[in-house]
Specification:
With about 300 residues, this protein is α/β, with parallel strands linked by helices. The protein is built from 12 helices and 10 strands. It binds adenosine monophosphate.
């Protein structure tokens, strides 16, 4: 089924196709039609399912239509738990919206506030933000949402896990009561359900199977090994396994540092990524990984 059959208009279909996608994923097939109808939607979907486009595309569709009166502020707001995710959503907005004349701005903490204030002054149609920094801007009067039409909570479960509920509630109190609400979450933990109930009246629920099976084409292997031999085993595996990019996850930030350093010492192009790095270090690490300058990311 092509994207156009979902009710998306030509510039947006062209935007997705330019990104290289010809067919909607299951979550996109389920979520896009009710969102286009203006309904509140709760979607249970994990990262990797195409869930970002599942809300970005219909939200773009809505914002591409001029509003009845000249809006006095952003018409769309996406809240996301982390800077990385906020940046990713903004990139999707720009990619899929390349044939539209919409302005977006992304707001997150850990960087100077000045450029964000400037960007807000340019009348963005859509704001993508992490909750803390958005509250900061709201408190300073840098942005008002009196004409907001659609709110998206992306990775709602993660936002609650990270303790953002009070911030989210304060943000909600600044939004007009009449709006479309979209909630995306990997799980429907109890807190998420309660938040959804407080936001929406009779939402449409969509979900795709969340079976704990590895993605197709992925094989998994488990190596029982004594603690002091783990790094040596990892190095050996990296040596004998053909690879382009490798993600190594550790339990702690210090563990990530330690493993990355040990790999570099052995001549591997590894870099660590964790919450104690500065924002610019984190962005550099991710960019280096994308560019294959550092083929091994230890996070
Ligand atoms: P997400 O679940 O939003 O993190 O997306 C996972 C990945 O799937 C991203 O790299 C998207 O660019 C990609 N993607 C989104 N929609 C489609 C689609 N219809 N077909 C193929 N890939 C897609």
């Amino acid at each position: 089924m092509p994207f156009a059959h979902l009710g998306l208009s030509e510039p947006i279909v062209n935007g997705v196709e330019r990104a290289g996608y010809t067919e909607p994923t299951p979550i996109q097939r389920q979520a896009i039609p009710p969102i286009l109808e203006g309904k509140d939607v709760i979607a249970t979907a994990q990262t990797g399912t195409g869930k970002t486009a599942a809300f970005v595309l219909p939200v773009l569709e809505r914002l591409a239509r001029p509003s009845d009166t000249k809006p006095r502020g952003p018409r769309g707001l996406v809240l996301a738990p982390t800077r990385e995710l906020a940046l990713q959503v903004e990139e999707s907005v720009r990619t899929y919206g390349r044939f539209l004349k919409l302005r977006s701005v992304v707001l997150y903490g850990g960087v100077a506030i000045g450029p964000q204030v400037q960007a807000l002054r340019a009348h963005p149609d859509i704001v993508i933000a992490t909750p803390g920094r958005l509250l900061d801007h709201l408190g300073r009067g840098n942005v008002r949402f009196c004409d907001l039409e659609v709110l998206v909570l992306d990775e709602a479960d993660r936002m609650l896990d990270m303790g953002f509920l009070p911030d989210i509630r304060r943000i909600l109190s600044e939004l007009p009561a009449r709006r479309q609400n979209l909630l995306f979450s990997a799980t429907m933990a109890r807190g998420v359900e309660a938040l959804a109930r407080s936001l929406m009246q009779s939402p449409v629920r969509v979900s795709i199977g969340v079976e704990a099976a590895p993605a197709e084409g992925v094989s998994q292997a488990l190596y029982p090994v004594a603690g002091h031999l783990k790094t040596a085993l990892l190095a050996k595996l990296l040596e004998i396994t053909p690879h382009k990019s490798v993600l190594v996850f550790t339990r702690t930030k210090r563990g990530a540092e330690r493993v990355a350093r040990a790999l570099v010492k052995r001549g591997f192009p590894a870099i660590a990524l964790h919450g104690d790095k500065t924002q610019s270090q984190r962005e550099r690490a991710l960019q280096g990984f994308r560019d294959r300058k550092h083929r091994i990311l230890v996070a």
